[in-house]
Structures are given as structure tokens and as C-alpha cells.
Amino acid sequence: MKTLVAKAGNVLIGSGHPIVVQTMCNTHTSDIEATVEQCRRMKEAGAEMIRITVPGLQDVSHIKEIKQRLRSEGIDTPIVADIHFSSATAIAVASVVEKVRINPGNFHKDHEKAKEQFARFIEVCKENGTAVRVGINHGSLGEYITNLYGNTPVGMAKAAMEWLDMCVENDFYNVVVSLKASNTLVMVEAYRLLYKMMQEKGLVFPLHVGVTEAGNGDSGRIKSCVGISTILSEGIGDTVRVSLTEDPVDEIPVARYLADRYDHKLNSSLTSIAIEGKKAVATYHSPSRERLIEDLSCDFGKRLLDRELDDIKVKGSYLSDEGVETEISEEFGEYLADELLQACRRRFYRPEYVACPGCGRTMYDLQGAFEAVKARTSHLKDVVIAVMGCIVNGPGEMADADWGYVGEGDHKVSIYKGKTPVLRHIPDTEAIDRLVELIEKED
Hints:
Elements: E1 5-8, E2 11-14, E3 20-24, H1 32-45, E4 49-53, H2 60-72, E5 79-82, H3 87-93, E6 99-102, H4 111-128, E7 131-137, H5 143-149, H6 153-169, E8 175-180, H7 184-201, E9 208-209, H8 217-232, E10 239-240, H9 251-262, E11 270-276, E12 279-286, H10 289-305, E13 311-319, E14 325-327, H11 330-343, E15 352-355, H12 366-377, E16 384-388, H13 394-397, E17 403-409, E18 412-417, E19 420-427, H14 428-442
């Protein structure tokens, strides 16, 4: 069944079109110069769509000026406004940008009022040719859905279908939908369920695919590749974002790799595979360390998630940054296997970290705090720790976490146990010590 096609500016998303690579600014939208500069770097790195947060009505004028500045420089990359907790802002910005991302779970506190506001929003989008992403996030589904289905993949898919049905009722089809989670098992199941539901309805909307709050470094790349590749390998997905707690420009090469691989523009560097029971022995000759990580994650992520395999051994070589062929040592091979199995939720050899990539709502040094938390907690096991950029939607979106470190702004931090704040307004100079004390006290 063919997927519908959505149009955001000069970019088409859906059947018959290449997978679109996108990313998101982590600058403050009110800092117009910094945001424009980051957009320039994103464009140069290959971003085909750029998302910018619009926290409130006061920022609509800022994103309008950012777009005008970019267009005056010949940068025509579509701009996506990211909206949380303000349906009025969504309506106001819909005539300014090429696409608006909303999260139905927090579009309005009252579900009936949210539906009314959504109909108004859709009318503005229709008048201006603006595309919409209905972006469902695990952990921020809204009370209406969680009361019916719980915070589950089924709840995520049902929530998406309700809002897609409203789009159809309003004769609006310029829509993309996403179901993101940090847990790869939840994310994959949700996308599979939604795709099946859309097929049964006879109307398949384009899908934006991503693993939210994936973290950084090797683990963030591996987790992202595992989740995204599993869906893309099944012919599901039309645009991707890799969410890393790094400079957002760093996300683009990983997303580009995934798009090119599943648009059949490149092949894996896997040279041989042997299956011993439910363990794979994989040999690679990769052109780089990063390519080795990407290929391994895509080659075996789905098979480990779906329990076709239980373990993996990695052998072979890769080219170093200096172009020197480097053998995959036993230690490095074990590290790659451990990271892959952790990303697939099959074996936990270290804490599982959930970390948002940051955006214009982030009020502190998120990357620095995340690295500090990892350094202080790496000895722990069987615990999920979230490091979130802001109090706005951080608590909702760290649904799987046992503990949360959430920035409040003004050098203050809240510490959560599950979804319950146990310490508030802690100076950031003390917060990691307090977090570690609480976790170790529990143990």
C-alpha cells in the first residue's frame, strides 16, 4: 500500500521520494544570530529539514526573522516549528513556517478543548500550505489516553490514530506522524502497530522515525541505528532524525547513513557471518570506526530485538582516522556486543541512560551535565538514569527512568525517582552528589 505524500516547502515526504534527513536546533530561539548560524552549519552538513522550538507566542516573531534571514542567504531548507503546551502558539506560527510539530498529549490540558483548537490549527495550515507532524512521545501521551490504554505502545498508536482521524475529518492530508520512545522495544512495537492500523484504515500517512533521548557517543548512535533501522528495514518510514546529546550537526551523518542505506545507496561492510545456535559471529572490514558501529547496529539490531539471535561476536577490522587498517580487538569486540545488546534491551552491563538532545528550552549545560552524570554513575547496574534539559516536558518524557536529573534553569536541578520529584531547587554544583547518594541508598 502506497504512503501518502506530505509537502513541507520544497521537500516531499512519502511514497516515491527519498528518505528525508532532519535535525533540530539547540540554541535559544530568541538568540536569532546563534540560531541562524547553527542553521547554516546544519545546511552545510546536509540537513534537509530543520526544527526550531517555539516555546511561546513571544517567539513567533523570532522564528519569522530567523526564516527571513536564512531565505535572504539562499538557504531554502524547510523550517519546522516545535510546539509544546501552547495550542495558541501552534495556530499563530502555522502561517510562518513550512511545517509545525505538535504533541497531542500536551496540545491542551482539556481533551475536548484540544480537539477544538486542533481544528482551528488545521484550518490555518490548509490556508497556508503548512505541513503538520503529529508527534507522539512515550511518557507524554496525556491523561485521556493513559486512562484508556496506559503508557504503552498501544496507547501511542491509538493516540496517533485519533488525531489522524481528525485530520481526515477536516479533509487535511499534509501530515506526517511519529511515535518516539527512548526504549527501542517500545518504539519499534508502537510504529509496527500504527502502520498496521493505518493499513487497515486504507490510508497510510508518512512516518517520521526516531529514537528519542538516545544519549550521545557510541551508545546514542547504536541505540538510534537499532530502532530506526528496524523500522526502515520493514519498508516503514519516510523521514528520520537521530537525537543525540551533542552538537546537532553531529546527528546528520548518522541520519544520512540510515537514509542512504535504506534508499539502497550503500551496502554494509559485513564480509561474513556464521551462526552458532542463536549466536552470530560477524566479520567486518569497515572504512571507519563509525561505519563499523552503524553497520553492526543495522545488521543485527532487528534480529536481536526480535529474539532471532541472543548474542553476537564481532571480528575483522576498520580503518582508523589516519587510514590505518586496525584489527577489532577482543576487548573492543566485546564492548560493541555489550553496547548492541544493551540498546536492544537484551543485556544490561552498565546503567541505561536517557538524555534529551537539548533545544531552545534547555536552560543549562546539558551536554556537560550528562557527561558528569555518566562519569559518576558508570559503576552502577540495572538502573535507568535520565538527564533532561528542562522541566517543561522532561519529567513526562523520561517514562522508563528509575531516576531523573532535570534542569530547572538558574543553576538549579530537580531530582526525580520515577515520575516523582524527591528533591527540588538543588544547586547544580551539588545535584550529582545528591543523585548518587539517593541511588546508592536505594541499593
